[in-house]
Design goal:
mainly alpha, peptidase activity, Rhomboid family intramembrane serine protease, two-stranded antiparallel sheet, 197 residues, membrane
């Protein structure tokens, strides 16, 4: 357990959980201050929300799902690619997965989103490149499914959920995070794609 807590995955999981719980229950104003708001970012305000938005979550379920995915996919991926590469992937995806939304919603003063979903999606899809046949047990599916099937279902859900723009979850970031995860592995370790194909 000590090894996990000193890993990049462990540090991110603990920091995100703590920060999110504080924002949800102790300092609710923190949630609004950290939320990613493209309209304000374009006007030079809340630029840090491109990253800080990934450390707060809309509700307890949103936090639990993201942290469960990080706990499940993060450690094996971090061991595979190393801690510096894992931290770089997470940081690039945390910011990069928001960039399309930054342009798409730049004129919408009402739009705001929170959550680490883009970075988590990058971790999940980088994991899939290395372990496509890994069997996963999910709470809502009584049989194990392979990682690549989980990835497909994850993106299908993100597309469907992304049509509801009333919630504070940026489902577009799921897709772009997945792209970042796949491209990151292609650049950092082209042999992984060669073995996959």
């Amino acid at each position: 357990m000590n090894g996990f807590l000193s890993s990049a995955t462990g540090i991110l999981l603990v920091a995100t959980t703590a920060f999110s719980l504080i924002a949800l229950y102790a300092l609710p104003g923190l949630l609004a201050r950290c939320a990613f708001r493209p309209y304000r970012v374009w006007r030079g305000q809340q630029i840090g929300s491109l990253m800080l938005g990934g450390f707060v979550h809309a509700n307890l379920l949103h936090l639990a799902v993201n942290m469960w995915c990080l706990w499940m996919f993060g450690p094996p991926l971090e061991r595979q690619i190393g801690t510096p590469a894992f931290a770089l992937l997470y940081g690039l995806a945390l910011v990069g997965s928001h960039l399309p939304t930054l342009f798409k919603e730049r004129g919408n003063p009402e739009y705001a989103s929170v959550g680490a979903s883009g970075a988590i999606s990058a971790v999940v899809f980088a994991f899939i490149v290395y372990y496509p046949q890994a069997e996963l047990f999910l709470l809502f599916i009584p049989i194990p499914i392979q990682a690549w099937i989980f990835g497909f279902l994850y993106l299908a859900y993100s597309y469907y959920a992304g049509r509801d723009r009333s919630r504070r979850i940026n489902h577009d970031a799921h897709f772009w995070g997945a792209v970042i995860g796949l491209v990151f592995v292609a650049v950092a370790d082209p042999g992984a794609w060669a073995r996959l194909l």
